[in-house]
Amino acid sequence: MLKKILYTLWICIFAVLVVLGLKNGSFITFINSMEARTFDIRQKILVNSGERKHNKDIVIVAIDDASYEYILDKYGEWPLRRDVYAKIVDYIEAQSPKIIAFDLMFVKSMKSSSSQDEELVNVFKKYANVYTAMNIDDQPQDVRKSVALPDKLAINLENNSGRELVDYLEYSNCRVILQEILDATSNIGLINVSRSDDGVLRKMPLFLRYQGKYYPQLGLKVGLDYLGLSKENNYSVAKDGKVYLENGKRVFYADSDGGVILNWYGPAGTFENIPIYKLIKAANGEENLNYDFRNKVVYFGATAASLFDIKTVPVDKVYPGVEVQTTYVNNIIDDSFIHKCPEWVNIISGLLLAVLTVLCVVYISSLPVAAGSCVTIYALYIMFAYEMMAGLFGSYLWIKIVAPLFFAIFMFIAAVIVKYLIKSRDFDYQYKLATTDGLTELYNHRYFQEQMQQLTSHASRYNVPLSLIIIDIDYFKKFNDTYGHQSGDAVLRQVALELKKNVRASDIVCRYGGEEMSIILPNTGYEEAVAIANKLCKIISSKKCKLSNNRESNVTISLGVSSFGADGVEPAQVIEAADKRLYNAKENGRNRVN
To answer: Which of 104, 57, 53 lies closest to 225, judged by CA?
Structure first.
């Protein structure tokens, strides 16, 4: 009955905790946040191992802290004049770069240099490989009126998923860039990002919805241009959620909100950075940059913390937004986006771990060995999940770790409760009754005889020492007659307690009978046993025993010591020798060792 009550109580408590967590979402939120952390850890390990290599043809023209200070000193204002950008682009284009992309938004005309916008616009008219950025947001209409974007910027998206694409990011307003640039080029992409609930940026949208149409990310356009697929503008969403470009020329494993999970190459500064102030000087003929931009993807963007384009990503807490874009482009070039395994794979993983856990607990008799086996299985699973994210079979898969392990650990606890804490409870209790003396809580005479038999056989087989001490409380009968049997029992308990406290964990203390007690000392020679006996004799004689009615009395003991081999090889011979020496100790004055 007790087993059923304990088991039911444990299950009910756990079920209540889970239900409460599910009710307010805290349990699922906790599991998801822990899973996200395991993703970050795996990405950091991959980065630190050096397994991921970024594309050396991607370079960043960085508006870093030094460049920001240089621009303020030279031009007296920020943002940088747009004719300067135009001059830099002309300088780079002379070396035939693959692509030039601005992770910057050219919104409205600068009051101090509106005439210089035309030079920048001419850049977009002149070069077909120059891209720029724009973003959409949810600003209220009384702050900024939403405008329609040119149809040439939108993509054709065919929905074959069988559901409305309501999970894609959708916004109601647009921070539009210069109309002349909109008219001059279709090389315009969005730079909206998609942060997780914990503020960490782990994925980026492929495209976003605005006024019923879908517009691509800047990084998507740049990456496809690098691959020669920039002219393809038709996408379809399959039933399994995969996004296909132009009849399967490229497949993207998008998450439920339309985002792709980034595979990181390193911390901030992984991609080559060229400070923009050096390009300004080179474009003005002030110094020779001595850098070859041929066939490079050149990204302009801010890396200075004071310009506020800083993100937190799995591999770094301070990561420039432009490097997020270059990571995105690099993933497209490598086809190395991470995609989540289907949920049924995670469920099967959890069930498999749970089954292996239960089998270990059920079929392995030792709990530490069973626990160690389970930990080994869990470690192997974690290693497998890491290798899958590293691209073990050519795809970069995110297999969940936390939920399957949580379920497996729950099954381990449940199995242990059933096997050890409930089913073994009665056996342990009965065994204790059969081997323990009720008054002193020492092992009883039956257990003493069993251990002597086993340990003498062990000593004979492996040629190891074994000793025995038999102890008698001096004048115990007289003590009982004087103070009463309750006081006698108290003395027995206190002497037994002192003996247990002052011997080794491997020594076996038993009640031999009446006021006699014994100590079996495995791996102990005669001389060492005598030293232990003398120590015990002094300890007992130095302490007063508490009797009934708050009285105290001194108690002494006599001890006889024998040793296996010298005193015989049979249990009875060793016991008889110790008993004779105990008799001699009592005859020679008691409170001594013989």
So the answer is: 57
Mapped onto helix, strand or coil, the DSSP state of residue 498 is helix
- Cβ burial, residue 155 (10 Å; 0-12/13-18/19+): middle
The region that residue 589 occupies, defined by phi over 0 for left and psi between -120 and 50 for alpha, beta otherwise, is left
pTM: 0.69
CA distance 349 to 357: 12
Check pLDDT > 90 for residue 367: no
Question: How do residues 28-60 score in pLDDT, each as one tens digit?
Answer: 888 889 999 999 999 999 999 887 899 999 999
Query: What DSSP line would sit under 406-453, residue for residue?
Result: HHHHHHHHHHHIIIIIIHHHHHHHHHHHHHB-TTT-SB-HHHHHHHHH
User: Using omega within 30 degrees of 0 as the cis cutoff, is the peptide bond preceding 79 cis?
Assistant: yes
> Residue 157's CB: how many other CB atoms inside 10 A?
19
Q: How many CB atoms lie within 10 A of CB 242?
A: 15
227-257 pLDDT per residue, tens: 998 777 888 888 777 888 887 788 888 877 7
The 10 Å CB-count burial string (b at 16+, else e) for 181-213 is bbebbbbbbbbbbbebeeebbbbbbbbbbbbeb
As to burial, measured by CB atoms within 10 angstroms (0-12 exposed, 13-18 middle, 19+ buried), residue 51 is exposed
